[in-house]
Amino acid sequence: MIKAILIFNNHGKPRLIRFYQYFAEDMQQQIIRETFHLVSKRDDNVCNFLEGGSLIGGSDYKLIYRHYATLYFVFCVDSSESELGILDLIQVFVETLDKCFENVCELDLIFHMDKVHYILQEVVMGGMVLETNMNEIVAQVELQTRMEKSEGGLSAAPARAVSAVKNMNLPEIPRNINIGDINIKVPSLSPF
Amino acid sequence: MALKIVKGSIDRMFDKNLQDLVRGIRNHKEDEAKYISTCIDEIKQELKQDNIAVKANAVCKLTYLQMLGYDVSWAAFNIVEVMSSSKFTYKRIGYLAASQCFHESTDVIMLTTNQIRKDLSSPNQYDTGVALTGLSCFVTPDLARDLANDIMTLMSHTKPYIRKKAVLIMYKVFLKYPESLRPAFPRLKEKLEDPDPGVQSAAVNVICELARRNPKNYLSLAPLFFKLMTSSTNNWVLIKIIKLFGALTPLEPRLGKKLIEPLTNLIHSTSAMSLLYECVNTVIAVLISLSSGMPNHSASIQLCVQKLRILIEDSDQNLKYLGLLAMSKILKTHPKSVQSHKDLILQCLDDKDESIRLRALDLLYGMVSKKNLMEIVKKLMLHVDKAEGTTYRDELLTKIIDICSQSNYQYITNFEWYISILVELTRLEGTRHGHLIASQMLDVAIRVKAIRVFAVAQMATLLDNAHLLTGNVQRKGICEVLYAAAWICGEFSEHLENPMQTLEAMLRPKVATLPGHIQAVYVQNAAKLFATVLKSQEGNTEGTAAQETSQLMIDRLPLFVQSANLEVQERASCILQLVKYIQKLQQKDVEVAEEVCALFAGELNPVAPKAQKKVPVPEGLDLDAWINEPPSESESEDEQPRAIFAKEEPKHSRPRHTEVDEKELARRREARKQEQANNPFYIKASPSSQKVYQEAPGVEHIPVVQIDLSVPLKVPGLPMSDQYVKLEEERRQKERAEKKKKDKKKRKEKRSGRGKKHDSGPESEEDITPAHMVDIVTEEMPENALPSDDDEKDPNDPHKALDIDLDRPLADSEKLPVRSHRAAEALKSPAEDGEAESAAPPELKKKSSKDKREKKKDKDRDRKKSKEEKKKKKHKHEEKEEDLLGGQADEPVVQPEETSEVAALPSSTSAEVSDLDFWLSNAPVPSNTQEAATVAEAAPVPEAASCTAPDSEPDEPKDTELEETKSSKHKKKKQKKEKEEKEKKKKKKHHHHHHHSDGGAEESVQNGTVEEEEPLPPMSNYCLLAENSYIKMMMEDADQVNDIQGNLQDGSQVVVSVIFENKCESFLKSMEFNVLDSLNCKLQRPEGSGPHDGLTVPFQLPPGVSNEARFVFTVQSIVMPQKLKGTLTFIVKNEDSSTHEKLDFKLHFTCTSYLITTPCYSDAFAKLLESGDLKGSSVRLEGVNMPFHHLLARICFHHHFSVVERIDSCASMYSRSIQGHHVCLLVKTSDQTVSIDAKCDEPTLLGNVLDEIKQTFSQC
Lengths: 192, 1260
Description:
- By secondary structure, chain A is α+β, with helices and mostly antiparallel strands.
- Chain A has one domain: Beta-Lactamase, CATH 3.30.450.60.
- In chain A, strand 4 and strand 5 form a beta hairpin.
- The two termini of chain A are 19 Å apart.
- Chain B is an alpha+beta fold.
- Chain B is built from 50 helices and 15 strands.
- In chain B, helix 18 packs parallel to helix 21 and helix 25 packs parallel to helix 28.
- The N and C termini of chain B lie far apart (88 Å).
- Classes of the chains: A alpha+beta, B alpha+beta.
- At the A-B interface, strand 2, helix 1, strand 3, helix 2 and helix 4 of A face helix 2, helix 4, helix 6, helix 8 and helix 10 of B.
């Protein structure tokens, strides 16, 4: 079972959190902080498994993570999951994000947290691995997106135009978000 | 009104959406909290609007804020509103928000039940999917109970997308509503064989998760999983199954034996590291479960260790880590095999990665020997110095102590060295393990007599420098060491060089800052020291010095008398009074030293940790009886501080309702005497405990080697353990030299030498004598000591509730709750209700009443229920009475199959268990061929049955049967286990019966004949293809179940499974499979290869191993049987040579093999016959001497037909070819004569099929 999936950036800012067991909000934040603390002090060339998250789980649980550019993808899993399998799952997830967002970068995750959740929902459900075939995941996500579009979407076109107008009028809108080179580089790892 | 709407939508234009919110937050970095609070106010406004789009937008933003740590539970009701929107877009937002912030105590959840149910049954699969996903995160016991039945229905949904989600969520439902497990389990099990790999994987996932917690209930699924394991190519599924087997093997060692082979094959053949790793892990689990009595598994261990070494040597840190992790599992049972890789593991200690170092540390435990202990510990001490994080350092500390103290200090040869190590460890900053060091010090000082002088000196130094240990707050943990130091100095004060100084150190005012339990020890041991000091002082000088000492005590003790700690206070005042009295006596010039010393006389002996607990209760003593009146409850508030060294084990005082006879009492008395004799707690006549040990039986084997300390060490100040390494080396050399001398001597005075008493184990092992002896009390246990029941399960574990026997038949009360209004509607016809919801409950009810009559079979039936349910669902027009009859009709159909299974193992009463036993009893047969092959071997009849092809040629004695599968869009479903194939067909048969009975011809159902029907002989579709001294090829015929519509256009493919079994002692490799294509039938080769190229078999075969490969053929016309000649070439590799060999074979594609078992309803069947498109033909079989149902089963099994209808000795059967030809049979029998009238739209095909059927029966 997967107990939690956390995505945060190099500064520990959460980009997506998904707990499969209930924790109160402050506890969730504490777990994120602790996990970030554990994960961030590790070099990039050490192993991706980590024991000792005391807040979440216990001795049966492991943190399995990958670090892509500015983001950490951390899965907290128990011993019924294969360590290498989960690593591959993270890879599948990130590659799926890459496909769905076309060169995914941290900003995609920041502004489309909901969409990332929907993608994740096609990979993991209730803490159990639902699908590992990337094409299948992408296909299902796209079908749902299409369906959303056919319904007009959440913020239909006019609203979007308005928000664009609003943005122009507001001086403090960040024109210079430093997008830089923060694309998540998805290395092509050997397939599972 | 209209205005309001317009106003609303204008407002809405200026609402922030999620992106605006995120941008805003990023823009207000300085006053983020303030900005967000205004946003929340806005959201609150938005939520008040009627417009659902506005609400959804607000909820979406809340989901984001929830991630940032804001409590959004106040909006729960709005979330429910958004969830119930009819638009998918909004619904999805609602469910997402709910899944992020709902939990069991969210009260609005109970409002959602109907909404979720509606969504679950929505025609839009994504509505259903979203609801399932959401539900998986916030399902509550109530929701689980109310929706279990709906979700169970979804498990048979037409869309795999829904099926897999429904299967997965069942696990959550089981957790919250354990009663649903048994009713749902049959269907879940059925999903293990779902044609969609995703669904299958989900089912495996759920069952593995269930089985992990309560493995014994799932043991009966082992054969099924085994089949999946040998047939699946999905690594995810394989890993799960293999992990599951790892949990099952401890329960059933036979399973382990059966697993070793296929797992070894996988280890050899797989390229996926994850799979390899899990295989190795499970092999290790198997080996552990088999650890005794399986000598020939050393090869497997070697293989595992080798593979792990490869992992550890890999540059990928992850593999390294996992390799070490798995290695530590082997270490427990097979330390020898791990020890040979010591170099590698020591190397990992220096790894930059802490996780890896920790894993390597775990392994060190098994690496040490007398020779290298010092060296390894020295290395660890260096790491201790370098380690920055306390966690790692503490880990190092415990490991050092573990390693040194393991098996009674087996590997320590020089205890002075060990004490110095312990003392060095006390210098650690901020460790939590002070008590660990302390208990080691105590243990060593008590048990190793020779070391006491040294230990006491060291401890005295420690006490003197106590300020170093207690200096700052950070070091709190380490001050526990003083507890040990004080006690050792006091208890063995006769060894102190300067007791006065130590006494002084122990009475310093600073001591009062120590924790209470340490102070208490200080006070008590100050008294002991005082006695020693008095003794020495009275001896040599006149009274003044002694009086000064008394005065010192009197001056200092009041400090402790004032202590808040009761224990300290009490001891201090006692001793203070005592000293005052002594002082009085001293003033009268009375010699008191002798008497004071007597207060502390006597020696303490080491006791086995559990000895006291295990002392049997004397007869007549009731430990549970109250001695006084029970105390009132209020006393508990003031709990005594726990003494650290008295590790309190929870007392399991069992009520002793003893009705013991005389004999038993006598035995116990005897046991107790024995116990007392060995129990050092009983003070015996002899004051020397040493003697007692030597006399006691059972301790002779302990290496008590009396040697004089050849290197008297007087290290001033704190010791340096490093010095010992060198010294020890010298000592050993010296010893070796001496030993040589002795040996020479011995040889000279060979006969005259007295039998030296202890010349025992470790010495001879490594030629190293320990410098000190260790007194060890073997743990004496009372004979009637019960095994400790400490490891009770956590009562809060949700999985405890799922510990449910799944083989027991369902009872009435266990059916899943169905919505009541539906049930009421369907009151008259429960079957109809079943059709709507899932046929389970009414069906089960009937079943179980039936079961009472046939108890021994009900397990089996239970297993089938799910399938029956499914079948039943198809019957849309069942009526009550007929259904009842149908229920009876079940029995005849189930019967033959059951009995056939029982026949396989006649002694069993329960078919399920016998299945497993039977399956397991075939352990030695190699992997893939196992199920079918063993069945074939086990039964004498079946070869006949397996030879089906009509025109087998004399030069090729063994026939082949081919199987076809369809690939392309339709997923293959492979059924290897012949038994199960049969089962399935039987079920189809059953189904048709049923249908028939619905049709109104009740009398045709043969109720009466049930019991008389004979068991079916086992049948197999494996047959030998070719064989020589090196290799055996077996063809396998798998059953086809898929419908074929999608596949008709793009030509027909046939998949042939061939099992290769290595029969020789050599390694077979580079196998190449090739056939000579005919015009009609071609082997599919990978793109780019020529038409005559062979296909490489994707594995190699170690001796005795078998494996299966599948080959795809394209067939143009299927009306005629085909024969293809082929060759298998391979290289036989011996140790010294390798030869090229080949084996010729002929592949038979019979017409039967193009047929696919396809169920057909009788009305459709009738229509088909009426259509007149079919051409007829018929055949008569004479002298067929077998029961009709056997005959049918044979046709079904070997020729892929299914029974449409059966009336007495007449049955109609149906099958379809892969190209869509219908084949209908009417089989009649009377007196050994069987007539088969057949119709088919392709006469040639029909003719050939009939010929083949004839052939089948002519052979039996």
